[in-house]
User: What shape does this take?
Amino acid sequence: MPVTDQGVHKDYYKLIPRVLIFVTREDSVLLLKGSPNKQLWANLFNGIGGQVERGEDVETAARREFKEETGLDLINPWLCAVITIDTDKLTGIGLYVFRGEVSDEEPKPSGEGNLEWIPANQLNTLPLVEDLLVLLPRILKMQTEDIPLSVHYYYNDKNQLVVKFNSGTFSTINKTI
Assistant: This one.
């Protein structure tokens, strides 16, 4: 099929692809506490991830981003969720969330922030990126054979993040963005 048959039009809704990766070791998850000078999510804990570059599939991007931010190889990644995030009328974010494994080596420092192994039972005590309070517990319960979650994020009229899971459950993040 030629590229002209792809049906791309400037007025169609477009997604910017990103990846987000979570790895666990025993009862802990590796999170990145954003450096204080980061434009987005400064001093907040998040998974490891970033943009998908031209020519990459999402798994390759996840492996690259993980290596860049931790110095470690991502082992046996599996897709856990596909999230569509509405940001305006014509553009959104397509976020591909992976789980995976790592060796026993410790992560290397990164300019993105500090990497920390956080016990899962302490996640709700940390300053997390706002959606992780509802997303991360579901991701951490997933097994490799589970069907990936399909999730839609959007902002309500109070500019609060609303998270809608394919199961029909909703969560409104009670923090005005």
